[in-house]
């Protein structure tokens, strides 16, 4: 189905007239001590969470109000997006909005957050982007962040996230042909630190061995000899 840009823009313009307007509001969302008057139709049209709530016949539907565990600042930005179509994402709020979009099950906003993450990826944010993409199984973001970590391996080796990686991810990292480091010693030293960080009861697929001749330490995995 082809959506005409002029028609879509006209609809958004019409909805924006009701942004922060009490006229025809028929539902209240409470966040802490802050209350937002909203329009059920718009919430249901954009959010699977609200659509399910309104169809469930739960007490919140009858009382025409619900309490949600999201900061009011984040929810207000989400409402602004729903009513006006404004691009509200910034480096400072994208993580909070991304989480809230998943909580409220707003597919198009989740997509917007993913695209924002991909387009703004940098050494300053790739760790947070990786964590949330991993949490929500965002393949689009993971497929971009993982190569970025390989390319900036020396920086990645200095992060807590590297030490927290599980064995399969570490093996995938060190076996990748795209891993870029200053020298092989950087990889060895990083893995030594990772092994020492791991609790003793963890998977023993990666071990530290001492060379009998040189006394130097080297890394051995279950996939190498």
Short description:
With 225 residues, the protein is mainly alpha-helical. The protein has helices at 5-16, 40-46, 48-56, 59-63, 72-84, 94-104, 107-120, 126-135, 139-151, 153-156, 160-164, 167-174, 184-197, and strands at 27-31, 34-38, 65-67, 206-210, 217-221. It is elongated, with a radius of gyration of 24 Å.
What does this structure look like?
InterPro entries: BACK, BTB/POZ_dom, SKP1/BTB/POZ_sf. Helix 6 runs antiparallel to helix 7. The strands form 2 sheets. A 3-stranded mixed beta sheet has the order 2-1-3. The chain has a two-stranded antiparallel sheet with strand order 4-5. The protein is mostly helical and 225 residues long. The longest helix is centred in the middle third of the chain and has 14 residues. The mean pLDDT is 87. The protein is 56% helix and 10% strand.
- Percent helix range: 55-70%
Q: Give the radius of gyration.
A: 24 Å
Q: Summarize the biggest pleated sheet.
A: 3 strands, mixed
Give the H and E element order.
HEEHHHEHHHHHHHHHEE
Per DSSP, the total helix count is 13
Which structural class matches the secondary elements?
mainly alpha
Distance between the termini: 57 Å
Average predicted local confidence, pLDDT = 87
Per-chain topology:
Layout: H1 5-16, E1 27-31, E2 34-38, H2 40-46, H3 48-56, H4 59-63, E3 65-67, H5 72-84, H6 94-104, H7 107-120, H8 126-135, H9 139-151, H10 153-156, H11 160-164, H12 167-174, H13 184-197, E4 206-210, E5 217-221
Parallel strand pairs: 1-3
Antiparallel strand pairs: 1-2, 4-5
